[in-house]
């Protein structure tokens, strides 16, 4: 048997860790690794057109599967392109291993062609970033990187000079069993008992849930029933907690709706469950607050806490619920449920008035029809900007659908590359990219990746020929919009020229059939929908301090749009309110 080189050993270890594909762009210093993949049937090389796409795709794959995913970039400019997608994966707690190929080891520090220092550059967006400068560091260094990514939830970066990759691997190098899943974290009895006492003493309890409630839906519902608590959520908590939820009061934040804001401010005990909600202007400062999080460094960094609980949500509630006295008074819960239904009834009227005849097409109408037609287990990837609003208000979660976006990092152009990663996981599952024209055109080259691999991603393009969220930011600052208008081509024609299905929709009556035709198509498809650039959004509560760093406007051109099927959910939940 021929002796392995470091690149072959590297690829073998990735495969043993469960990595099924490596996203990237080939090139010089990366060639030994790519060649090793060519000869290894356990792992696939996915050729994208831009390394930023590679990182976003790996991050989305990790979020869909919960397992380690990987990407790679060649030396210098190649691996530098990874950084934006890696920031997003890291902030989303997606376990991703990034390979940053490097210049020859003998030339490092001498200003060589394409020289950078990736082991330093990626430290801020990773748990672990180190360079293999000697073959004897393998396989221990790679195994350590994998365990950082999986164990801490986020990115690890391994820098590998091309000559080291091509060097013989050390003989009889020690390999150990890899950690490929994370354990449950249970709080101590002292914290559980303190929290139980606080809940028993409180009259009005509200739960505010984030992505840390994934896998804990049943436990949250059982606890909410026991303490008669309204349940609100942040954007990243929507897919995990809103469905089958008779205690739902909507979402808080700048994309919010319903009675969540009131429920978090009118309670006397607010419990933050698995959320690192960044907008502290939407959190109260005059009620008791408890935060439960599996990441201890996140406890208390958004608001002053009366109790910090280190543990994952499911295990915490399993321990907590039996120790809490069942409450019988539903007055606060019922009051919030009614406020929530009333709030949704109010805004839904703006959406229902002749919207199906409005030209240019209301984006709310597009999102509503899309929600109705998409599969019950569809994966939606959502571009940053106004598409976040439409996804938050119109996509209906059911426990099977997934909604992935750059919700913590806030990058443009994420939807298409994330759709690539999500679709590679399962070609038979419907994946829909809700793209804006600004985001789509930024990484449009990777639409060709869909065609090359015949990935059946459906791109629904909300084309308002503008950077809508940026226009809002300018309006808030009292500035005229400038540099926000896009002169767009016929994107559907570009899709057809690339060999995919493409259709352009300019009239509302065309939308339903266009989406159905695209969904029926077996390969990649793009639906270019010309939408109204004046259809913008405002949150349910506005304070001056909320304006900073985000888009708000109270001008007459703002449409406080509808809320899709959520109004039906609110009406249904009202049936739980006892009648006098």
UniProtKB/TrEMBL annotation:
Residues 192-320 form the Thiamine pyrophosphate enzyme central domain. GO terms for molecular function: catalytic activity; magnesium ion binding; thiamine pyrophosphate binding. SUPFAM superfamilies: DHS-like NAD/FAD-binding domain, Thiamin diphosphate-binding fold (THDP-binding). It comes from the Bacteria. Keywords: Pyruvate, Thiamine pyrophosphate. Residues 383-529 form the Thiamine pyrophosphate enzyme TPP-binding domain. InterPro entries: DHS-like_NAD/FAD-binding_dom, POXB-like, THDP-binding, Thiamin_PyroP_enz_cen_dom, Thiamin_PyroP_enz_TPP-bd_dom, TPP_enzyme_TPP-bd, TPP_POXB-like, TPP_PYR_POXB-like. Residues 5-120 form the Thiamine pyrophosphate enzyme N-terminal TPP-binding domain. It holds the Pfam family TPP_enzyme_M. Belongs to the TPP enzyme family. This is Pyruvate dehydrogenase.
